[in-house]
Amino acid sequence: MRGGREVADIAGVVIIGGHTVEDDEPKYGMSVTGTVEMKKIKKISDARAGDKMVLTKPIGIGVLATALKAGLLSEMDIVDAIDNAATLNKAAADIMHKYDVSACTDVTGFGLIGHLSGVMKASEKSCKVYADHVPMYDLAIEQAKMGIIPEGTYKNREFVGEDCDFTEGIQQEVQDLLFDPQTSGGLLIFVAKDDADSLVEELRLNQDVPVAEIIGEVTELEEEQICVINLS
Amino acid sequence: MIETIDARGLACPQPTVLTKALIERGQLNFEIIVDSDVAKENIERIAKRMGYKVAETRSGMDISLRLVKEADIEEKSEFSMEKPKSMEKIVCTPKNVSVTAIVLNSDYIGENDELGMVLMKGFLYSLVEVNPEPNAVILMHNAVKMAVSGSGHLENLELLIKRGIKIYTCGPCLDYYSLKDKASLGTIVNMHDIVELLLNSDRVVSI
Fold first, then answer.
1. Which of A3, A150, A156, B112 has the smallest count of CB within 10 Å of its CB?
2. Residues paired with A105 in a beta bridge
3. From the candidates A69, A73, A171, which should be mutated to test the interface with B, based on the most B CB atoms within 10 A?
4. Using CA atoms, how far apart are residues B115 and A7, in angstroms rounded to an integer?
5. Which residue from A56, A83, A64, A53 is spatially nearest to A180, judged by alpha carbons?
6. How far is B17 from B42, CA to CA, in rounded Å?
7. Does the beta carbon of A76 lie under 8 angstroms from any beta carbon of chain B?
8. Does residue A79 belong to the interface with chain B, where contact is any CB pair within 8 Å?
9. What is the ipTM of this complex?
């Protein structure tokens, strides 16, 4: 409770009430109401061809949580991932507003490709994902190779279906991780090509932003909505 | 007769964890039955990674996966009636896999005296040698002291780990003794994990 309150303070949110539910498993959630500056809203429908895509947290926490549940990893092993999940996206969001950012989404339960697909459909664009530039937890890659993959991954892949194409040579575990459901993932920021490097540089300098990587680019609408390639 | 594991009804990722355990134990040829495509997909991934071929048969909701180590396929003659030497004799239980867990509640046996300490050392040493070996050793209460750097039991515990026996150390107990920051052997678990481990074991030996 105190932890939630502390993070709400950082986020600039006032907790004005709540109610308690008794159950075997503890649950915690918040419902948020407020006002938003219209000109600061970043929608998922405004991505432009030529924009670069920047990701601000590594992916793979779904696999790590599954491995933890199976007793294959301990909490100590995945302390980085837990810390990153406990980090607000506030710092990244504040920085993003200084640059020519067209659209933004966060990456959570539908996985990176799932949320990316939402943006592509709404913006009526296509994109390329540089698989070898997507930040992933090393332990998640290792566990995914061993088949420790949550059910959500398969559901996410099925949902996107034919809209995502993988070029040859993208390893199975990388494909699986691109659909890995995230808990409290990072921001996927769509930024003008010319601003991309500066945005990434400023994000990297901030200690409350776990990573900053250019993971792909937006193109005009093509046959394949999402095309995953290895850039190098 | 190949060993068959019934993994139906087990929550993800238990079927994959079971498969991994069998592969690590050196089973070259076995069958595992699951009831979900997710379990099937996960098992196919680890099988491929570890060099096993997978043959699938479906019957209603059941998916039966036959795993065979690739090198083994070339070596076996289809007319051979001999069991491969690698086949271990497995005690059949309703689950077809016998899982034994040993729970240690203190770092001595009997009394907390010289004899007690010597008995525990001997006990752990015997576990290193005995066949078949237990699957897991769970350390609770002050038994956790044995797994921490500086303990005289580390050598034997390391040998157990080398044998493939999982060592589980009670996290809250490490906390109580302010040992959580010290390097320790084994996987740190909480009480929920321990209860699960015990209830999923066919046999529990408590010292």
1. A3
2. A188
3. A69
4. 53
5. A64
6. 10
7. yes
8. no
9. 0.79
